[in-house]
Amino acid sequence: MRIDFDAMEETIIPHMRGGEKEVAARMYTDELGKIMRGRLIPGASIGLHTHEDSSEIIYLLSGRGKVLCDGVYEDLAPGGCHYCPKGHTHSLINDGTEPLEFFAVVPNQ
């Protein structure tokens, strides 16, 4: 199945999961999970949240940022990948000067 993010409408999500500013996202969802290409402007974040019923994989496409995962900060640069297993807590933060673009997969478990 081909997913064409460029053909999808971009959704603006203010304060996603209690984060700062907004997330611009193009998402495919079904009963098995969510696949998303997203963008955080400088200073924006996805708030700290726990994956109770799923895990999440985030792959950084461009920009720079960090993840707060179970209380530990991890720097992310293009080509970097972050994994948040089921039952763990994380947040994605753009602390850089350019937009942070990422690809994320959240499979339901």
Q: What would you say about this model in short?
A:
It contains no helices and 10 strands.
What can you tell me about this protein's structure?
By secondary structure, the protein is an all-beta fold. 0% of the residues lie in helices and 56% in strands. It is built from no helices and ten strands. It has strands spanning 11-14, 22-30, 33-40, 45-50, 56-62, 65-69, 72-76, 81-84, 89-93, 100-107. A hairpin with a 2-residue loop joins strand 2 and strand 3 (33-40).
- Beta-strand proportion: over 45%
Number of helices: 0
Helix content: under 10%
Q: Round the mean pLDDT to the nearest integer and report it.
A: 97
Which series of helices and strands comes N to C?
Answer: EEEEEEEEEE
Tell me the total number of β-strands.
Answer: 10
Distance between the termini: 20 Å
Unreliable stretches (pLDDT < 50, length at least 5) are: none
Cα-atom radius of gyration: 13 Å
Q: Main sheet, how many strands, which sense, barrel?
A: 6 strands, antiparallel
Shape: globular
* Strand numbers in spatial order across the main sheet: 1-2-3-10-5-8
Structural class by helix and strand composition: mainly beta
What is the secondary structure topology, with strand pairs?
Elements: E1 11-14, E2 22-30, E3 33-40, E4 45-50, E5 56-62, E6 65-69, E7 72-76, E8 81-84, E9 89-93, E10 100-107
Antiparallel strand pairs: 1-2, 2-3, 3-10, 4-9, 5-8, 5-10, 6-7, 6-9
